[in-house]
Design a protein that fits this description.
The protein has two domains: 20-239, Endonuclease III, domain 1, CATH 1.10.340; 251-387, Nucleoside Triphosphate Pyrophosphohydrolase, CATH 3.90.79. 38% of the residues lie in helices and 13% in strands. The chain has helices at residues 25-38, 51-61, 66-79, 83-88, 91-98, 105-121, 129-133, 140-151, 160-169, 179-191, 198-212, 230-233, 301-307, 368-377, 384-387; strands at residues 251-261, 264-269, 280-281, 284-285, 312-319, 323-326, 331-344, 353-357. Strands 1, 2, 3, 4, 5, 6, 7 and 8 form an eight-stranded mixed sheet that branches. The protein starts with 24 loop residues before the first helix and ends with a helix. The structure holds a DNA duplex (11 and 11 nucleotides). Residues 60-211 form the HhH-GPD domain.
Length: 390
DNA sequence: AAGCCGGGGGA
DNA sequence: TCCCCAGGCTT
C-alpha cells in the first residue's frame, strides 16, 4: 500500500486529521473517472471560477433539485449580475426573485451574506473554508463546495447525497445523524479527497448521489463503485443509510378517579376535540406534578379529598394497578384511584359529569382501556351485580 | 403522512 | 455545545 503525503486542508477542523487507514486513492479515481465520462459538465454554474456564480448555485441547490433551480438561477443573475448588485438591492427585491423557490431563510441569508462579503472582504469571497462557513447560510459542506469549485481547494463536502454514497460504499450501518457517526463520516470525507482533480471529484460525488445512488431504486448497475460497494455485496442497499430512529413517543401521565356510589360510577364527558373526543371517561385529577424521573408522584389523601369535594366527602381511597395505553403519537400512563365517599352530594352540576349506571357500563361510550378497567372492577367473572361493592 | 435535509437558533 | 426544527418536496 502506497503511503501518501497529505497536509491538512485549510478548512479542516483542528485535530481532525484523517486516519491513514481511511485513505484510498482508488475511490476518488473511480468517482473522477465516472464524472468525466458520465457526469454533468454544462450546468450554468459550471466551468467558472466566479465564486459569486458558484455560491448562488450552491445556496439555490440546497433542498432543491437542479431542474427547479435552472430558471430561477438565470432570472436571478439577470436582476443581480454581480455580488455588489445583490448587496445593494433592497431585501424585498431579493425575496421577489426567490419567490417560488421555497425555504426563504436562504434568500434572507443570501442577501446578508452578500452584504457581509462586500463589507468585510471588499466583495471578494474568502478562500478558506472556515471563513466561508462563518458567513450566513454557508455551513461546513457548502463552504467546501464553494472553495473547491472556485479555487480548486482540497476541501471535503458532506451533504445528504454524499452520506448516502458513503454509507452504502463502506457499509456504515449507523444512523448518520448521530454525532459520532457524522464525525466519522467527515473524517472519511477528508481522507478520501484526491490529490488532484478536486472539482471533478466533488461534482462527481454530488452527481453520483443525485442520479445513481438515489435513496430508493438506485441504479447500481451503472455505478462506478459497484465493485467495491459493501452494501451491494451484502444485499443491504435498501437498508443503508440507516434511517432516522423514530424517537420514542412522548409519555404522558394522568391520574383518574374511579368514584363509585350506590351502583353508579362517576363519568365525565370529554371535549369534542382532542384525544377520545366526545366520549365519556373517568374524571381526571388535575394539578398532578411530574417527578424528575417522569413519573407521577402518587396522589395523597388530601389531594384526592380536594378533587372529590364537589361530589362528596372522601372516606377512603385505594390505588389501583396502573394502565398504559399506547397511541400512535404518545404513551399514556393512567394511575387510577378507587375512591369511596362518606357522604355524596347530589349536585354534580356542570362540566359534563354524570353518574352512570354500573350495570350499563358495557354499553357506555367509553375508551377501550377505561371500559376494560371498569368492567373488571364491576366483578370479574360475571357475578357482576351482586359483588359490586358500590 | 412520513421521511428527508444543511444550516440556524434555542435550550 | 447539543439538539431540534424549518419548509418544501419525495415516496
Amino acid at each position: 500500500m502506497k503511503r501518501q503525503q497529505h497536509s491538512p486542508s485549510p478548512g479542516m477542523v483542528p485535530g481532525a486529521a484523517p486516519e491513514e487507514d481511511l485513505i484510498d486513492p482508488s475511490f476518488s479515481a473511480a468517482v473522477i473517472g465516472w464524472q468525466q465520462q458520465h457526469g454533468r459538465h454544462v450546468l450554468p454554474w459550471q466551468n467558472t471560477r466566479d465564486a459569486y456564480l458558484i455560491w448562488l448555485s450552491e445556496i439555490m441547490l440546497q433542498q432543491t433539485q437542479v431542474a427547479a433551480v435552472l430558471g430561477y438561477y438565470a432570472r436571478f443573475l439577470e436582476r443581480f449580475p454581480t455580488l455588489r448588485d445583490l448587496a445593494a438591492a433592497p431585501v424585498e427585491d431579493v425575496m421577489a426573485q426567490w419567490s417560488g423557490l421555497g425555504y426563504y431563510t436562504r434568500a434572507r441569508n443570501l442577501h446578508k451574506c452578500a452584504q457581509r462579503v462586500v463589507a468585510e472582504y471588499d466583495g471578494v469571497f474568502p478562500v478558506e473554508q472556515a471563513l466561508l462557513a462563518d458567513l450566513p447560510g454557508i455551513g461546513r459542506s457548502t463552504a467546501a463546495a464553494i472553495t473547491a469549485f472556485a479555487n480548486g481547494t482540497r476541501a471535503a463536502i458532506l451533504d445528504g447525497n454524499v452520506k448516502r454514497v458513503f454509507a452504502r460504499s463502506f457499509g456504515i450501518a449507523a444512523y448518520p445523524g448521530e454525532k459520532k457517526v457524522e464525525e466519522a463520516l467527515w473524517r472519511r470525507a477528508e481522507a478520501l479527497l484526491p490529490e488532484q482533480g478536486i472539482e471533478s471529484y466533488t461534482q462527481g460525488l454530488m452527481d453520483l448521489g443525485a442520479t445513481l445512488c438515489t435513496r430508493s431504486s438506485p441504479d447500481c448497475g451503472r455505478c462506478p463503485l459497484q465493485a467495491r460497494c459493501v452494501a451491494l455485496a451484502t444485499d443491504r442497499v435498501k437498508d443503508l443509510p440507516v434511517r432516522k430512529p423514530k424517537k420514542a413517543s412522548p409519555e404522558k401521565h394522568a391520574t383518574m378517579l374511579v368514584l363509585m356510589d350506590r351502583g353508579q360510577v362517576l363519568l365525565q364527558q370529554r371535549p369534542d376535540s382532542g384525544i377520545w373526543g366526545g366520549l365519556l371517561s373517568l374524571p381526571e385529577l388535575d394539578g398532578h406534578t411530574l417527578a424528575e424521573d417522569g413519573n407521577i408522584a402518587p396522589a395523597d389523601h388530601a389531594a384526592l379529598s380536594m378533587a372529590v369535594a364537589r361530589f362528596g366527602e372522601l372516606e377512603s381511597h385505594e390505588r389501583l394497578s396502573p394502565i398504559t395505553h399506547v397511541f400512535t403519537h404518545y404513551k399514556l400512563h393512567i394511575a387510577p384511584y378507587r375512591v369511596t365517599l362518606a357522604r355524596r352530594l347530589d349536585a354534580v352540576g356542570e362540566a359534563g359529569y354524570v353518574w352512570y349506571d354500573g350495570a350499563r357500563i358495557a354499553e357506555a361510550p367509553l375508551p377501550a382501556p377505561i371500559k376494560k378497567l371498569l368492567l373488571e372492577l364491576c366483578g370479574d367473572a360475571g357475578a357482576a351485580q351482586s359483588r359490586m361493592a358500590f
